[in-house]
Amino acid sequence: MADEKSPEELTAALTTLLDVEEIDTNLYRGPRQPGGVGRVFGGQVVAQALQAAQRSIGEAKAAHSLHAYFMRPGDENYPIIYRVVRDFEGRSFANARVIAMQKGQPILNMTASFQLPAEGLHHQARMPDVPPPEALRSERELRNEIQDQVPEKFRRFFLRARPIEIRPVAPRNWFRPEKIEPAVQHSWFRVVGSLPDDPALHRAMLTYASDMALLGTCMLPHGVSWMTGKIQTASLDHALWLHEPFRFDEWLLYSTDSPWSGHSRGFNRGRIYSQDGRLVASVAQEGLIRVRD
């Protein structure tokens, strides 16, 4: 398409989206997604909240974990205000709470923890044995191949260029999903352009992307997806642990599984590895998966 953005433009747009503006002490404003319609993507809210906390705490201590609860859907028609409360600042660790608000109502609560760099005992889970990203096709290529099957109301959203490139190890049919057990899936992902040497930005972008593909894992055993029209989905919470330094403009493997679902909720876990096998982050999320008549 003639008006399609380049990888550099897509990356710059995501960088701008996550560049929260300080409007007062410990008070920040997150920009809207240009052209966004309806509900704000949950990963955007968590990533902007992390950026607000990182800027409030400063660069000396690095974020190593966050725990967030979604309370109301964000509205793409308005920016989001983030209020940071710095509850604890010790010599090695710091802790901050972030409240994300729109029109005076909280839409997300998050707590983040920060630590000065330190060494210690080390072990990690082994990286799954999967094909490298160079041997796989991108999700966008796979979507374009089935564009004739996409309902008109979803087509623009489904086919648009995105700043995060995803290469699934075992692609799934969005419209006729098969039941898959155990509930495990693997995907490589990275931002499509290059990023500056800003660890806080890389952490924020990984946080943004960690909300992709995760909730869908608990639907694998049931043969449904958000595109089948039979299921209502929403993230209820999001937890992320950042273990090792990484670059988000290099390939990372997102390995997810779902050990349980029930009572209209599904529980999902994720491990994120660098291409050389380092476990750089872990994720957990519970989401709404409500069957509709």
Class by alpha and beta content: alpha+beta
Low-confidence parts, pLDDT < 50 over ≥5 residues? Answer: none
In DSSP terms, counting alpha (H) and pi (I) runs of 4 or more, how many helices?
5
CATH superfamily: Acyl-CoA thioesterase, double hotdog domain
Rough outline:
globular
Task: Tell me the Rg in angstroms.
Answer: 19 Å
Overall pLDDT confidence? 93
Main β-sheet, in a few words?
13 strands, antiparallel
Query: Portion of residues in helices?
Result: 10-25%
Note the gap between the termini.
38 Å
Would you state the CATH class? Mainly Beta
Classify the beta-strand content into a percent band.
35-45%
* The CATH topology: Porin
Instruction: Just name the CATH architecture.
Output: Beta Barrel
The ordered H/E elements are: HEEHEEEEHHEEHEEEEE
Structural account:
The mean pLDDT is 93. 18% of the residues lie in helices and 36% in strands. Helix 2 packs antiparallel against helix 5. The longest helix is centred in the first third of the chain and has 16 residues. Strand 12 and strand 13 form a beta hairpin. The N and C termini lie far apart (38 Å). With 293 residues, it is α+β, with helices and mostly antiparallel strands. It has one domain: Porin. Strands 1, 2, 3, 4, 5, 6, 7, 8, 9, 10, 11, 12 and 13 form a 13-stranded antiparallel beta sheet that branches. The chain is built from five helices and 13 strands.
Give the key terms.
293 residues, alpha+beta, Porin, 13-stranded antiparallel β-sheet, 5 helices, 36% strand
